[in-house]
Amino acid sequence: MSNSPLNKAVVDAKIKELRISDVGKASIREIVALVNLVEEETGVKYIRMEMGVPGLPPAQVGVDAEIEALKKGVASSYPIIDGIKPLKEQAALFVKNFMNVEVSAKSCIPTVGSMQGTFSAFLAAGFVDKKKDTALFIDPGFPVQKQQMMVLGLKYETFDVFGFRGEKLRVKLEEFLSKGNINSIIYSNPNNPAWICFDEGELQIIGELANKYDAIVMEDLAYFGMDFRRDFSKPGVPPYQPSVAKYTNNYVLFISSSKIFSYAGQRCGLMVISDELYIREYPDLQKRFESPTFGTTIVLRLLYSISSGTSHSAQWALAAMLEAANSGKFNFVEEVKAYGEKAKVMKKLFVENGFEIVYKTDLGDPIADGFYFTLSYPGMTGNQLVENLLYYGISAIALDNTGSEEEGIRACVSFVQTQQFGELENRLRLFNAEFQVK
Ligand SMILES: Cc1ncc(COP(=O)(O)O)c(C=O)c1O
């Protein structure tokens, strides 16, 4: 590593200081801590691709509404656990306008970020049926959800969807579901980290199998509308954000405000339970949580116990942002398109310097340019690539953190500044010059 822009000894010392045993396997937060230390010591700014933070200013309409709500004094009163009425109504309208899915306001519930939504939904799903004690993740996925399963002490199985797109997905899913122990199927769409997007055919397969095997589909829409190959931005006008909700009523949707409204800091997302699932009675669940239905278990047992609702002022912010989107005043897709533009340039720089895109296509079409993409470098494992790039001032996480069976890394574009593209190109040239012959 004769030409690396960073002193290897400094990076190694910081790895030691943080007691990271294998830096290639480090978690997102470990990489964040390491890079912060190295930047502080060396003054060299990294090209930071490890963490999925928004990187754009928050939607102003949300900020204004939240300030207004605070001025009115909402901070002093506990919010209603299942959400303030205007938020619930705007959420149901949003689902109708941008997904063409009917759901009642009652079934739209604010949560402390999608993180709390998945935490409580995983917990409920884990107890719906004594015989079904295992969740199934369609990977690659968002690593923290596996941590949630670990914290909850719940079982899960996973498979990498890389080789199972289209009709092959049916065969693979049935392999797991036919064993009879699966209570839920979990995935994100667009996918974190691969940015693959399931098409209607694949969502139909998931929905049909959820009905056949009575499994709850947990559809994580953290990147709602962000498959920029199509325009999902017009309320009430097709095309709509594709969803499994078209094919089954056995679903929970998670709509995060963190990326579409750049509102991550206020920790206010939405969980949307189908009306049918909300009122469904599961005898085992009733025994475990002493609550009549799936919906009441989530709201009055789990959300009540965990946080007693979601920040009151942030709910007003989210209600206002949804209202602005619903009325066509605020085009939330246009606001975040900058991510796609950055991804396009960054992918090109990497590919020109010997890298390859790992998850390259959606059933034959090139994947969209969005919030994340995946990369490999010939002859290197994903873990080696994470480690080697760190010496070249580029940080990312390895794909094996995400349940992928492919060798590579996840690159997140949000934190990388366009002014850094020149520096990124320089560092990639140096990297490629060092490693291409080996
Ligand atoms: C797929 C996925 N789900 C959920 C989240 C977390 O969302 P929130 O900030 O609403 O808790 C993220 C954040 O990066 C994500 O990528």
Secondary structure tally, helices: 15
Largest sheet: 7 strands, mixed
CATH topology of the largest domain: Aspartate Aminotransferase, domain 2
Low-confidence stretches: none
Describe the model.
The chain is α/β, with parallel strands linked by helices and 438 residues long. It has 2 domains: 8-56 and 335-435, Aspartate Aminotransferase, domain 1, CATH 3.90.1150.100; 60-326, Type I PLP-dependent aspartate aminotransferase-like (Major domain) (Aspartate Aminotransferase, domain 2), CATH 3.40.640. Helix content is 42%, strand content 13%. It has helices at residues 8-17, 28-42, 60-71, 85-99, 113-125, 143-152, 168-177, 200-213, 275-278, 283-289, 294-306, 312-326, 332-352, 382-390, 421-435; strands at 47-48, 108-111, 134-139, 155-160, 182-188, 216-220, 251-255, 269-273, 356-357, 361-362, 365-366, 372-376, 394-395, 397-398, 409-412. The strands form 4 sheets. The protein has a 7-stranded mixed β-sheet with strand order 2-8-7-6-5-3-4, sandwiched between helices. Strands 9-12-15-14 form a 4-stranded antiparallel β-sheet, with helices on one face. A two-stranded parallel ribbon has the order 1-13. A hairpin with a 2-residue loop joins strand 10 and strand 11. Helix 5 (113-125) crosses helix 6. It binds pyridoxal-5'-phosphate (PLP). Pyridoxal-5'-phosphate binds at residues 52, 113-115, 142, 188, 192, 220, 222, 256, 258, 264, 269.
